[in-house]
Amino acid sequence: MIDFIGQLAVAAGNLAEEGRRSLAAEDIRCKASSADLVTAVDRRVEEFISAEIRGRYPGHGLFGEETGSSGDTAEHCWIIDPIDGTTSFVHGFPYYSVSIALRHRGRMVAGAVYAPMLRELFTAEAGAGARLNGRPIRVSECGELRNALLATGFGCVRARMRPDNFEFLPEITRSVRDIRRCGSAALDLCNVAAGRFDGYWEFALQLYDIAAGALILAEAGGRVTDTSGGAAWPENGLAATNSRLHPALLECFRKNRRISGQTLCVAPPAGG
């Protein structure tokens, strides 16, 4: 199974990269705003992935960012983000990825994230660890926020939801070594899994953004919760760390909410 998912992610990534090199202005359109892009390549890649899965597993359900759900209540359901980081993709910034996960009876059991321009393939199976280009990976040993490099994103800002991430930045920025914002939730999670980042947080994500990456991180020894430490992610935000930093990162959220009286933002419905 994991070989199929990995090979499919690479094939889809190669198709995306081929499309990027010939991308024209008329192939790009906006969704909710000028910052929320989709291209003809997104749909083409998702259709390719879906066709390959249907050909091999005709009884399985599908849930994709661009085409929505089909049989997603089946025991097995594939969760697909054909291009996670479409703005990066359009601008030729290499931080975009293809994300494919398999859910069985509500539990993620396998996943792959492929970054075509970086030629990095992250894979994981439940209970079998995580790998980068076939080699085992593990989260960092960083145990103090002051020494940590974190990643984040600003989906809440684009969705005009509150609280938005700018309201948490001062508290977290003062607490850590530095912060990066690269534009692909799937890759951010994978880079925590590989020990490059020590943690990652974001709001207003959808399941297809993070399904594969969250499994890869968990299998590499990391921890994923909502920003209150619960299991309501991504609906109530996402906090992902190397495990050791998790209590300290959650405390940043608690402290900020006590001061401002904020409540959690809830992601818009899938497909919005």
UniProtKB/TrEMBL annotation:
Binding site for Mg(2+): 65, 81, 83-84, 209
The EC number(s) this enzyme carries: 3.1.3.25
Reactions catalysed according to its record: a myo-inositol phosphate + H2O = myo-inositol + phosphate
Requisite cofactors: Mg(2+)
Family: Belongs to the inositol monophosphatase superfamily.
Family annotation (PANTHER family): INOSITOL MONOPHOSPHATASE, INOSITOL-1-MONOPHOSPHATASE-RELATED
Name of the protein this chain belongs to: Inositol-1-monophosphatase
